[in-house]
Amino acid sequence: DTAVSQTPKYLVTQMGNDKSIKCEQNLGHDTMYWYKQDSKKFLKIMFSYNNKELIINETVPNRFSPKSPDKAHLNLHINSLELGDSAVYFCASSQVKGGGDTQYFGPGTRLTVL
Amino acid sequence: KNQVEQSPQSLIILEGKNCTLQCNYTVSPFSNLRWYKQDTGRGPVSLTIMTFSENTKSNGRYTATLDADTKQSSLHITASQLSDSASYICVVSANSNYQLIWGAGTKLIIKP
Prior knowledge:
The structure holds two protein chains of two kinds.
Chain A: E1 4-7, E2 10-13, E3 19-25, E4 31-37, E5 43-50, E6 53-57, E7 64-70, E8 73-78, E9 87-94, E10 104-105, E11 109-113
Parallel strand pairs in A: 2-11
Antiparallel strand pairs in A: 1-3, 3-8, 4-5, 4-9, 5-6, 7-8, 9-10, 9-11
Chain B: E1 4-7, E2 10-14, E3 19-25, E4 30-38, E5 45-51, E6 56-59, E7 62-67, E8 72-77, E9 86-94, E10 100-102, E11 106-111
Parallel strand pairs in B: 2-11
Antiparallel strand pairs in B: 1-3, 3-8, 4-5, 4-9, 6-7, 7-8, 9-10, 9-11
């Protein structure tokens, strides 16, 4: 069974469009994250939610809006997509918030903005 | 500034050989250090985690060491296999916040 799943796996879209990426975890974890991995392979945290509450919100454009309908789901909506948004987006979860717990990652969503 | 630097950037070795990857950090105050393995097209998977008091930790053919005084860690891979081809990422956690500071990774290629 997949622990952390993301859909879609690939997303190709035009500049200016609005798109969403969905994430679900079946590990019973309280905390979920969104990361962006660019072409240089650095993983950068974007958001973190703990029990549906936003606890980390890095300097990310307002065009990015996370939504957590329940603690098993954390979706990412992106408005007015730009070329620079092209990257791989990873969802992750951990049992507790904070750096003391192992994070489990989804397979990633490769977003290409044309 | 909290930073994690890894070396080498990439490494090619023959199957069956050993190798060591390096991680230097300037994160303070230090909480723990993890090594993740990221296969191409997949999310990272945790290999080891070490706290301040731990010097070494093994996971099968992977052995991580930590020197908290010099702020250095290494990941040693013994008897490499083709499936070890991946990026290995060092991640350091600071006590003061919830965030993890990620290194850029070392891309390891094992050749038959």
